[in-house]
Amino acid sequence: MPDTFSDVAEWRRHIHARPELGYEEVKTSAFVADKLKSFGIETHTGFATTGVVGVIPGARGPGRTIALRADMDALPMTEMNPFGHASTHAGRMHACGHDGHTAMLLGAARELARNPDFSGAVVLIFQPAEEALGGARVMIEEGVLDRFEVDEVYGLHNWPQMPAGTIGVRTGPMMASCDFFSLTVTGKGGHAAMPQLVVDPVVAAAQIVTALQTIASRNVPPHEAVVVSVTQFHAGSADNVVAGTAELRGTVRAFRPEIRDLAQRRMNEIIDGVAAAMGVRVDFDYRRCFPATINSPAESDAAARAAARVVGGENVRRDEPPSMTAEDFAFMLEARPGCYIWLGQGTGASTHMLHSPTYDFNDAVIPGGIAWWLEIVRERLG
Ligand SMILES: [Zn+2]
Ligand SMILES: [Zn+2]
């Protein structure tokens, strides 16, 4: 497969130089569809606007169907890298390595099409809009898993925190649910020197920020994980004026649905209580974004066996701590059993983290990523 690796690195750099945001992956989507067709793979376009699906039937007759998924979208940020394949689209950057995911799945697709020595079928899902937009959810709602009769789903993400040559596979929670909230505190503005005549929304909002910290420290059991982060606090326009309103925004993360529910319920109760105590009105909006990414047991074991054949058993990390970041592959794992793995790509001190303006996908992990796709097919359909 040496030609595959150099081709895939070239495709990866081609995509990296042309980053597109969620649901706008027009060129990327066309590139993927053209490649799949050139490999002789049955290709479907138009899912969730720019999503692409390829279907490869196995040569060994009927069997189960597994889906392999890659994400295609980039981020709205400016790349700071000096190299030749840096972004040519102003304010757009492949800073999460989805260029690498897409290219590696294309590489695996070509190998599987050349040698379909498996039963059942492999469905290749190239999804748009992973970054906070939930392209996976839209593709599921449009019936991608039902239409192609998918039994199991598999995904991967490059992981700079782990060294190249390692793979992380957890059973159970891998990444957290992700919700966002905003609230507006309305009091009564006025002269800063006459506090007796105002209802200060800044003081009330500050109490809310403090009180929300007790969800993690006093409500959620210590052996469970939750994050309640107030990330924005906006109020006021002058040093001598008490503002009429204050705005807070932030995010909530959890691994278990019960803890997610608890955090949301306690936020409502705390905000209502502080509002009553401070005499302000609070308009609170809580938006559920992604569920937690939860790997099912049998499929995780299969993913780990596949990983061991690629990097050796000693380099498969079954106990890497889960991450409180989120991933919309969670919707696919809610709908079907499956597994999502981390493909280590760190290179020591020179490693740049995901979403950094100096990040780049590490092409050295391309062979391992493709090999894991091929091994998971062999594991489940071989
Ligand atoms: Zn990302
Ligand atoms: Zn990503």
Task: Walk me through what this model shows.
Helices cover 35% and strands 27% of the residues. With 382 residues, it is of the alpha/beta class. Strands 1-2-4-3-5-16-6-15 form an eight-stranded mixed β-sheet, with helices on both faces. The chain is elongated, with a radius of gyration of 23 Å. The mean pLDDT is 97. The protein binds zinc ion (ZN) (2 copies). One zinc ion is lined by residues 96, 98, 130, 157.
Please give the count of helices.
10
Shape: elongated
Q: How is the main sheet built?
A: 8 strands, mixed
Report the sheet-strand fraction. Answer: 25-35%
Class computed from helices, strands and strand pairing: alpha/beta
Helicity range of the residues? 25-40%
Strand order of the largest sheet: 1-2-4-3-5-16-6-15
Strand segment tally: 16
- Low-confidence region ranges: none
> What's the overall average pLDDT, rounded?
97
Distance between the termini: 20 Å
Topology pattern, helix = H, strand = E: HHEEEHEHHEEEEEHEEEHEEHEHEH
Oligomer: single chain
What is the gyration radius calculated from CA atoms?
23 Å
Each distinct ligand: zinc ion
Give the helix/strand layout.
Layout: H1 2-16, H2 26-38, E1 42-47, E2 51-57, E3 65-71, H3 98-114, E4 121-127, H4 135-141, H5 144-147, E5 152-163, E6 167-168, E7 172-175, E8 177-186, E9 190-191, H6 201-219, E10 226-235, E11 241-242, E12 245-254, H7 257-278, E13 281-290, E14 293-295, H8 297-311, E15 316-317, H9 329-335, E16 338-346, H10 366-381
Parallel strand pairs: 3-4, 3-5, 5-16, 6-15
Antiparallel strand pairs: 1-2, 2-4, 6-16, 7-14, 8-12, 8-13, 9-11, 10-12
Bound molecules: zinc ion (2 copies).
